[in-house]
Design a protein that fits this description.
Number of domains: 2
Low-confidence stretches: 1-56
Oligomer: single chain
Structural class: alpha+beta
Shape: elongated
Order of helices and strands: HEEEEEEEEEEEEEEEEE
Largest sheet: 7 strands, mixed
Length: 299
């Protein structure tokens, strides 16, 4: 049987000392665990924020690249611009035909003055410049609308004659045209070797400058941007059909026409077998002596 040992006086209590000594070690271990957990939590939060930032940035870059790629694909399949509103400026032109027509006293429909006779070769004749039949001027207007994401620069325009014939000399019905608009700044001389757009001088006998219009003028078309062009064409000798070639800064050339057809202009013939004038007071066609009476050159 084990005997109970009596504690000697002054002998330390070893059990209590061991118990008291272990408490601070447990507290330190617990503190380290808590500190480690907090540190991991903080690092995890920072890492999560960083990852979220990086992923969002990459997603944004991918969206930008996709948008840019779509724009480039769009630009490859569409023309640099489209043409809207091709017109003759509302100018009233004289009308000629190869047929010798007896039409004195024929009524004229003001809305359709070219329907005075059932012939299919009626041709518009330009407005006499300065009242003289030696040179005529016609007017063309059109609007270009940009279609590409990257703006395009227009650096030149040039008339391209697709047909050049002699004026018709059978019958002329002269109509007092109002001329072209005063604010037109660009024109083409269809009788010249240089068919580039030139600045208008608006001087008697010399309508166009020798300076090319686009020598100092460049036109930029952004997507959906609209630019209106008003031009004049001159001739003294031809019955011409033509289109306008528009040159871009990258060398691309785009033809502009009159709603799918070429524009047409004719000079006056030297003489006509029959000559008439549209009397706007009676709205009937009346005979006249060519050219003085028909063009009212005495008035």
């Amino acid at each position: 049987m084990a005997k109970n040992r009596k504690k000697r006086p002054g002998q330390p209590n070893r059990g209590r000392l061991r118990s008291d000594a272990s408490r601070p070690r447990q507290g330190i271990a617990t503190s380290k665990k808590v500190a480690g957990a907090v540190t991991l939590a903080l690092l995890g939060g920072v890492a999560g924020t960083y990852c979220t930032y990086v992923v969002s940035g990459r997603q944004e870059v991918r969206v930008q690249r996709a948008t840019h790629a779509d724009e480039l694909a769009h630009d490859r399949i569409v023309a640099p611009f489209r043409v809207e509103g091709s017109n003759d400026g509302g100018v009233e032109y004289s009308i000629s035909s190869s047929h010798i027509l007896e039409i004195a006293g024929t009524p004229v429909d003001p809305e359709h003055p070219d329907r005075f006779a059932p012939v299919d070769d009626k041709t518009l004749v330009g407005v006499p410049l300065g009242g003289s039949p030696s040179i005529v001027v016609a007017h063309e207007g059109f609007t270009l609308v940009g279609q590409r994401s990257v703006p395009v620069d227009i650096v030149g325009m040039k008339a391209r004659v697709t047909s050049r014939l002699a004026p018709l000399s059978g019958t002329i019905v002269a109509i007092e045209g109002e001329g072209v608009e005063d604010d037109v700044k660009m024109g083409f001389d269809l009788d010249s070797r240089d068919l580039s757009a030139r600045s208008i001088l608006d001087q008697p006998g010399k309508p166009l400058s020798t300076t090319r219009f686009f020598a100092d003028v460049h036109v930029t078309l952004a997507r959906d941007e609209r630019v209106e062009f008003e031009v004049s064409t001159y001739t003294a000798s031809c019955r011409c059909a033509f289109v306008i070639d528009v040159t871009l800064s990258d060398g691309t050339v785009v033809a502009v026409d009159d709603n799918g057809d070429p524009w047409r202009i004719s000079a006056f013939a030297k003489q006509y077998s029959k000559s008439y004038i549209w009397d706007v007071i009676t709205s009937r066609i009346q005979p006249c002596a060519w050219p003085r009476e028909c063009l009212r050159m005495d008035s």
